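Hi, here's the filled form for the chain we discussed.

Project: internal
Contact: R.S.
Residues: 273
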Amino acid sequence: MFEQIFENVRQKHPLIHNITNYVTVNDCANMLLACGGSPIMADELEDAVEITAICGGLNINIGTLNQRTIPTMFAAGKRAKELGHPIVLDPVGAGASKLRTDTALRLLSEVRPTVLRGNISEIKTLALGNGTTKGVDADVADKVTKENLDGAVAFAKGFAQRTGAVIAITGAIDIVTDGERAFCIRNGRPEMSAITGTGCQLSALTAAFVTANPDTPLEAAAAAVCAMGLCGEIAFQRLTEMDGNSTYRNYIIDAMYRLTPAALEKGAKYEVR
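And the returned structure, exactly as it came back:
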């Protein structure tokens, strides 16, 4: 299943419009190129709506939210929705400030993304209307574990049913659900959290996977999550005692560039509930 999904990305080269943060924008562009997609970055209001129209999908990331780009996110999101383009929303830091939380909630309501991808604290904040995060990282108290996985899956399914979006919660155990089925994914390495922007890269990656596979957004999002985690595993094996998080970041992008659809199918670690 994931093999064909990734093959579609490699063959179709989906063009993805990214309105993302300036901390990780370059890594997001390189991750899209590595997977077989094509990135374009546009966050100026007069530019973004036209750019959205020529692209196949849209990735909205609120990591460095500001008053100039907020109207752009809504305008591009509404245009993408009119065109039937897949939309990924990454509510970075929702729960850390009122502006982030309110903007993410409005985007969720007005733009209605195809996929909502965030850590457990961000997703809980949007589901409950308030919450806490450790900056842009998940609160330790919210961590998904083997012991609370059943409850986390039930929560994610319920939120997916309410919003109509595929909910992708990433962490030590990833959960991707459309409200009916849930992929519980165990790819990845804990060291990935030491890199700024692996989540942002994953949201861009997810946009490419869903755009290339518009009829199967759940499976496409799950495949993207597995692929990112698998590349984290492959890249970690290359590290020497002299390497750190900067090298690890580059190796993850390299691993995605070299990853084959067959290797993704073989290396994906998941169960469906």
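Let me know if anything looks off before we file it.
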